[in-house]
Amino acid sequence: MAVLGKIRQQSIILILVIGMALFAFVISGVFDGNSANNGPTEPIAIVNEEEIDVPLFRQMVEQTERTYKYSTLQSVNLVWNQSLRNTIFEQEFAKLGIDAGKDQLEQIISSDDAVVNNPSFQNEAGFFDFGVFTDYIAQMRIQEPAAYENWKAQEKSIIGVAKQKIYLDLIKSSGGITEAEADALYHFENDNINLEYVQIPFNVIPDSLVSVSDAEINQYIKKHEIDFRRETNRNLHFVSFSENPTKEDLDRIRLRLEGLIDEQISYNDVSKLTDTIEGFKKTKNIIDFVDQHSEVSFDSVYRARGQFNNEYADILFGLEIGEVFGPYRDGRYFKISRLLDRKKNASLRASHILIAYQGASRASDNITRTKEEAKIEANRVLRMVRRGKNSFEELAAEYSDGPSYNRGGDIGFFQEGQMAQEFFKYVNKNKVGRIGLVETEFGFHIIKVTDKDDLAIIADVANEAIASDQTANEVFRRATTFEIESNDSNNFTSTSEKYNYVIRPVKNISALEENMPGLFNQRQIVRWAFEEETRIGDIKRFSLNGLGGYAVVQLTGIDNKGIAGIDEVGSEVRNQIIQNKKAALIKKQYGDINTLEALVEDESLSIETASAVNQKNPTLVGAGNEPYVVGAAFAMVEGNISGFIQGERGMYKLKLLKVNEAETLKNYDEFTKEYLQKASFSLLENVFQALESSADIDDNRAIYY
Fold this sequence. Notes:
Elements: H1 3-9, H2 11-18, H3 25-28, E1 45-47, E2 50-52, H4 54-68, H5 72-96, H6 102-109, H7 113-116, H8 130-143, H9 145-174, H10 179-190, E3 192-201, H11 214-223, E4 229-230, E5 233-241, H12 247-261, E6 264-268, E7 273-277, H13 286-293, E8 303-304, H14 310-317, E9 324-330, E10 333-355, H15 371-387, H16 392-399, E11 410-414, H17 421-429, E12 435-440, E13 443-464, H18 469-489, H19 492-498, E14 504-510, H20 523-530, E15 539-543, E16 550-559, E17 562-563, H21 566-590, H22 596-599, E18 607-614, E19 619-620, E20 624-625, H23 627-634, E21 645-646, E22 650-660, H24 669-681, H25 683-694, E23 697-699, H26 701-704
Antiparallel strand pairs: 1-2, 1-23, 3-18, 3-22, 4-17, 5-14, 5-16, 6-7, 8-13, 9-10, 10-11, 10-13, 12-13, 15-16, 19-20, 21-22
Helix pairs in contact: 4-5, 5-9, 6-9, 8-9, 11-21, 18-19
């Protein structure tokens, strides 16, 4: 096999590309960036005065689209996030003098099982040898220069990962928590309280008793500016014109398919003779017939009943060989289907209880029993199954080491080649309901045969249920008429009312969005809304990508970066102010009442009990999540009654019954170790967010995409 073929098979390449160094090509310089650029000249980004060039960025976006089948904007955002991450980290590494060399490279490569277990990289003793690996790379440099260039980029990616590891290790080694901090965290997580409370919901005060002025709303926004900062966005509304097929369109498709079933006699104007055109039912050349008449290619694979449309699967599997069924609707298509061949009972279904042993394939690390012990255990469970005191499903849930234990051992339908051969042979030769014991490389299986079904090859002639040209032209005419009249009258709303069209509003679109309510994957509309030439009130018709039909759109608002105005957040702020005013009125109304019992003389209120309430999960049974109220309760003294406390859903008066303080640990080493280990899982992301928040970043994505 060619060296290039081999290197492509190494999973380390996939791991690095898909994992942490998914797009580390951005910093590796593997592309020369010679693509033409006749548009804007700005870099895609400037990160702390370091530019990220457009040509390379575009190449990575295109590669992501091809590889992962993402939309353009999804790919742009994925490449952006990784480019930003790599650039910021590389700047930090350079600042701190962090570098990685051969030792770190060897450590990462040696941790990949696929590379370590590859015979090409093993010495005479059968062990992975980094020297053999480097010789392999040296040989590749001579024999496969293109593959070697690819490896150099991957090597840089690996070094980038190694630098991140060094960086994080340095942070971990310098971090920690004191015993006092550990004690506080431990009690925060484990202390709990029992309390009684009365909730007075805000709705006891009628809305008519509370009024809020625009001046109050503006004052609130100004006081809480940090909560109402917003990026530049746009508002618009639109009327959509869908190209849905009419009943006449669908009837025409049905008639066309019906005409393909049987042979037809057609008069040939050229030869002046009649021609016999074979039909789907009798044709011997299925592949050519399907290729000629169907919009979906012929599939010669045997398929199980469950892979077909549920509504018609039983009918299709009940056909005689050569028989045709249809036309019928299957999702987006109308079809006629012909049964070509059937394999009786070739689709099998079974449940099993796996008893694994140490050393068996895929056995988890916590399996310690030997093979002999596993066999004894399997026979014991088999006897329990056959006695029937417990159902197979219950025993599977209790004893199985297989991943299907939580489904009662059910592994669904399978075919030959999809299961271990010993497993398949047992199920294949035994009747439904039979139970037995089989050994495979995974351990011992108590198997119950649960079902058998046929496999079939079914040929389909499929025509998509789409609008006819006549219908599409009519939709275009209506959309164009609406666009022209809306522009002429300069009144989008009245024109839509004239034709009884529904206007759909879209609020707060950011510059890098592509999906809007009712308009999925319509990037061109967002770009138009953000163009400098587009003004409030402008109207334009767009063809809808991937959907067919049109949308006539009007830009209704431009909100620049800054503090949100009353028109944007007025409703939200008004509700908060109303809540605050109602809280004050409740305090005034019930302010002289000092006990819970006196409060509940109002028959609409009741005393509730909440036990084992924890600060980490501050939920009050019957009231929901109330972190501020629970926090206030922890500050109380046992037996005391609180004043009125404003929560998320009302005002509360509490009585602290008991503080259940967890027993103080004699040694916090284990707790500290566990806490820091949990924290390390999100360390990289937290560090990146901290670096990003302090970085100076110019984002020019919206110029190019």
